[in-house]
Amino acid sequence: MARTVIESASRTVVIGFDQPFCVIGERINPTGRKKLAADLEAGDFATVERDAVEQVACGAMALDVNAGVVYNSNPNPNETEPPLMRTMIELVQSLVDVPLVIDSSVPGALQAGLEVAKGRPLVNSVTGEDERMETVLPLAAKYNVPVVAISNDDTGISEDPDVRFAVAKRIVERAADHGIPAHDIVVDPLVMPVGAMATAGRQVFALVRRLREELGVNTTCGASNVSFGLPNRHGVNAAFLPMAIASGMTSAIMNPTRPVEMEAIRAANLLMNNDANGAAWIGFARVLEAVKAGTPYAEAATAAAAGASRRGGRRRGRA
Amino acid sequence: MARTVIESASRTVVIGFDQPFCVIGERINPTGRKKLAADLEAGDFATVERDAVEQVACGAMALDVNAGVVYNSNPNPNETEPPLMRTMIELVQSLVDVPLVIDSSVPGALQAGLEVAKGRPLVNSVTGEDERMETVLPLAAKYNVPVVAISNDDTGISEDPDVRFAVAKRIVERAADHGIPAHDIVVDPLVMPVGAMATAGRQVFALVRRLREELGVNTTCGASNVSFGLPNRHGVNAAFLPMAIASGMTSAIMNPTRPVEMEAIRAANLLMNNDANGAAWIGFARVLEAVKAGTPYAEAATAAAAGASRRGGRRRGRA
Lengths: 319, 319
Known about the structure:
The structure is a homodimer.
Chain A (H helix, E strand, L loop, with lengths): L2 E5 L4 E5 L5 E4 L8 H8 L4 H12 L4 E5 L10 H19 L4 E4 L3 H10 L5 E6 L2 H14 L3 E4 L10 H17 L7 E4 L11 H16 L2 E2 L13 H15 L3 E4 L4 H13 L7 H14 L4 H22 L1
Parallel strand pairs in A: 3-4, 3-10, 4-5, 5-6, 6-7, 7-8, 8-9
Antiparallel strand pairs in A: 1-2
Helix pairs in contact in A: 2-3, 3-4, 4-5, 6-7, 7-8, 8-9, 9-10, 10-11
């Protein structure tokens, strides 16, 4: 049974079929966030700080860190992104103690992140493109870290799930050549918008099952893509995630500050028998009650998390 | 591929793997509804009338009709239930044009319902108990109607899913002896409360998949049982239903007047590619907008259903 172990300075998270679904917070990413991009170039990290703390309070078990800013002052990301990645990783791990996901298309930025990340981060990502495999896999092997494998290759993204499965298989095999075991590959089978491709949901459910049964790998996805262009997107996402989990999906890179999706995941954990005594569900139901009474979700979740750690502190004090 | 065809006077509903999930309205049932039981004994059918119309407006594709009242004036249901079932079936089919599910533990009431139901109703239910099989299966065969098969037998309800599968298999085999094909058996694998049995969810998902792959049968369940005793039950149900659907479940006997569960089912239909062009999802999103603006769900759904049929009427008028 595939167990992908990721670590922060002092905390271990296991991605696996018998584990709570691993929610990877996606917010620390300047892509499509113009203000954040400008802030980062100006050396202002206030949003990164807030996103780190808030996502963990809301239930993120790991945080994706992407430093993909194209500076106005220097358009070469190979020069600008590595030092920014280093700064962001160091900042985030000074604030929260969860495993990090080093997310970049710039090899130097992956290298910089790996040099400073504590514990055992996850590298995001390798694809089936030859050049990318020969750059990223040696890096993952050198640092003995797991890697996200996205199932597209030099020919692009196939709409045929059999082709996407074959790409994933090829990456797993190439990783093995570099000494990386299958349980350190987390495959992203690529989720298409169901509004544009009606078979997108069924495809992913079948693909996740095959990846689990035939390759024995964990899986992840950019979950919200499935609902692109549709009304009431949270409702689509909140059904997609439990369906993917029932099919064997073990993590997602997503926004944990949305209560609808987080409720669906916590209910799915309970239904998959990955929530001992329903404790997480019962605690989350209290947060939702506060949300119904008007408290914003992030605030209610932060208060609950603080309460839990205060209670823990008192217990330790009495011991 | 199993296709269970049920019919009202003029409408056909197919339960199947490539069909929208079949929502069977559970409300017309005096069990646990003291006031409704008293009303029925007194000959007052106002609640039945409202429940019939409201459930269909809310999206029920078939209606369960249960006449299980124990009269104060006559404690023998073998005498009282058959005429009451007949009256209720005739009333319901005079108001709404959806297939009916004749639900009784009294053989005479099943017979009475079958005599008056138009189209092709579903009989609810046979179990693996010998006496029950030898009573209900000949009746289903005589009227050429499908039947719900509950996977318990003379030894009770097993907590072991392999035993429940074996019971279902035995019912399917016995039905074949009576000339009833597997596609006319809709198996209820029995959903236990996950709060009492932590493996209940996983059990059902695995069992539904086996029933589909090995016996080729459609499945149904009393969905809300899974969340019994837990806080925020609707949240558990709303994850359970999409997970069951992704595993192959094709219908449920449930309360369609709850928007949270209905939203989950409609999203699951979309994600299973059983909602052509997303039309049902887009229509439902408008109903949810009205609900967010303060309109009760049943009222918003009724208005939307009336609007759709008025628009249909105008189109016919112009033709």
